Amino acid sequence: MGNNRKGIFFVIISMVLFSTGGLFIKLIDANAYTITFGRAMIAGLIFLPFIQWKKIRISKSYLALVLSYCYLCIMFVLTTKITTAANAIILQCTAPLWLYLFYIIKGKKITSRELVPRIFILIGIIAILSASVGGNLLGNMLALTNGIAYAMVQYFMEKDYPFSDTSVVGLNNIFLCAVILVLMSGKLDFSELSMAGWLGLLFLGVFQIGLSYLIFFKGIKLISALKASMVSLLEPILNPILVFAFVGEIPSAFSLVGFGIILFGVFLTLLPTRAVDRLEEYTID
Fold first, then answer.
1. Which three-class secondary structure string do you get for 38-105?
2. Domain assignment of residue 147, given as a range
3. CA torsion, points 74, 78, 81, 83, in degrees to nearest 10?
4. What region does 107 belong to: left with phi over 0, alpha with psi -120 to 50, or beta?
5. Is 67 in contact with 156 (CB distance < 8 Å)?
6. Structural domain total, the chain
7. Residue 245 above 70 pLDDT?
8. CB 117 within 8 A of CB 261
9. Which residues contact 237 (CB under 8 A, 6 or more apart)?
10. pTM of this structure
11. Once rounded to an integer, what is the mean pLDDT over residues 140-162?
């Protein structure tokens, strides 16, 4: 197997592991803060041997990354608990829209190539929020804020840090545990967690976060960033499918339409310029 196929295979495996998050969050009978803390603590222990302690430098950019990551993880678990897994994951994936708006505010020129995919994402958001009026609007709005947090994580992850990506992930999870202990310790409750719940937490920490990141980092060294991003779309697709298969959760028809539109918009943001131009010409014809 060549490096390209190995890289794609590794990224696929990591996305399958990432996508199990929604299922286990639904299945574990504990509140969102307990699950987030347990998962992060176990993942942090997994990454301890990989952290380059001597190279660690705490900068403003890294602090912003940590805060964004903490919000992202807590809110993803919380919204998966209170709304559908499909809405929680796809509204988080609206990050390209918020990043684009941020760059426009900073003075970036608006182009149709970049604007069209974001319009699809916006239409998908409107469809999902329209479906939740009179229902779980709060959960979906919170999931939408997670899209902004995810955009911030992506933005600050692109900064140059003197330590490795594995160190970043390990430290992020350690800081996440510290934040929960300081600000939300009263919400932690492991007392009534069943054996199945503990096994679920162990799976989330070891496989859904720990092993998946290690495999992902190995894979992206062998393929282009574009291919890795394309394959990464498996996560938001598989996440609600697994929840449906094992929990029986079915989003509303409007939510499914919004899900598909957002996913298509995210897909368009990843296509090279020529491919998008051809697609637009084909659509117009």
1. HHHHHHHHHHHHHCCHHHCCCCHHHHHHHHHHHHHHHHHHHHHHHCCHHHHHHHHCCHHHHHHHHHHH
2. 3-283
3. -130
4. left
5. no
6. 1
7. yes
8. no
9. 19, 263
10. 0.92
11. 95
